[in-house]
Fold this sequence. Notes:
Helix 3 (92-106) packs across helix 4 (132-153) and helix 4 runs parallel beside helix 6 (218-250). The radius of gyration is 18 Å and the shape is globular. It has one domain (19-250): Ribosomal Protein S5, domain 2 (2-Layer Sandwich). The strands form two sheets. Strands 1-2-3-5-4 form a five-stranded mixed β-sheet. The termini are far apart. Helices cover 33% and strands 27% of the residues. With 251 residues, the protein is an alpha+beta fold. It has six helices and nine strands, in the order E-E-E-H-E-H-H-E-H-E-E-H-E-E-H. It has helices at 54-58, 84-87, 92-106, 132-153, 184-187, 218-250, and strands at residues 19-23, 31-37, 40-49, 65-72, 118-127, 166-174, 177-180, 192-199, 204-211.
Amino acid sequence: MSQSAPRADGRLPDQLRPVTFEAGIAPHATGSVLVSFGSTRVICAATIEPNVPAWMKQQRVPGGWLTAEYSLLPYSTHERKARDISRGKLDGRTVEIQRLIGRSIRAVIDLQKLGQNTLWLDCDVLQADGGTRTASITGAYLAARLAVQTLLDTGRIKENPLTDSVAAISVGLLKGRPLLDLPYAEDKDAEVDANIVMTGRGRFVEIQSSGEEATFTGDEFTQLLALAQKGIRELAAAQTAFLSRELLKLG
């Protein structure tokens, strides 16, 4: 198959799925966004709590804190996924993803400028079709930025603590072809998959990459990184356009 031949959904190998952002999806949150990467849809909500964790108080750590939670809603997958609370514990995948979301947003925030506040980021997957963690990170940044604007507008903080934007995308090798933004049908059969997190200025935050009973070369990895960089540049531009509209409404 030609490296440039269309994929099953008609996209080119280096093409993102349709990406959309909808603000205000959770009106009781300080900031919220419904993010869609193709058929993957995630509600990302940011809530400001005027307090910090006990360990920060005990250790007299200045500034605020940011933490994230992630969940696949029971009806988000083809077969019903039991809620973690019904099992009495979080599964390992959930813990891994919510830690990744928290690390990704903390990479672009000055917590001292957040003041004595905790920024909670809740990412709830409505529909899962591959790339739920990358969509969550991309949407969580937008929800955080909207929430921060509310803090600024109400005078609860004096400076914007966010130092850059952040977004994430998946890439992979399927039958030897490097592909951008894999839906589930491609992801489940990929020999190699990776999730790349980058800032709007093009700096890497995290790279997760593994072979699925396969290996990959340095050249193949370089191709995957180049694809991810292209995709994240496009996501960053979409984030900027979205915020330009939404922050104008808030103003």
